[in-house]
Specification:
25% of the residues are buried. By secondary structure, this protein is an alpha/beta fold. The chain has a four-stranded parallel beta sheet, covered by helices on one side. The longest helix has 12 residues. The protein has one domain: 3-Layer(aba) Sandwich (Oxidized Rhodanese, domain 1). 20% of the residues lie in helices and 14% in strands.
């Protein structure tokens, strides 16, 4: 789904430990509400979120839903699972 490019992809991991190619935005999971202006204005935007293991992105999914976003997909297992399938991460900024 991330590779298909039909979702707005957000890395919610903190600290920066890299990202998946094609990521649109990096916002720490605990900064979503404070940085709301950087998120898509349309609440029906298809979102895909991830972190390193899935813990932070699970919290982020709850926050985004509470903010009114209606189509959120969480990459189960996060970047660790992504790498376990042989895919690369981009280096930290």
């Amino acid at each position: 789904m991330l590779e298909a490019g039909d979702r707005y992809v957000i890395n919610v991991h903190t600290p920066d430990e890299g990202s998946i190619a094609g990521t649109d935005l990096a916002i720490a999971f605990d900064q979503l509400e404070a940085r709301e202006a950087e998120l898509p204005a349309e609440r029906s935007t298809k979102l895909a979120i991830y972190c390193m293991s899935g813990n932070m992105s699970a919290t982020a999914a709850e926050t985004l839903a509470a903010m009114g976003y209606t189509d959120i997909v969480d990459l189960q297992g996060g970047m660790a699972a992504w790498q376990a399938t042989g895919r690369d991460l981009l280096p930290a900024a």
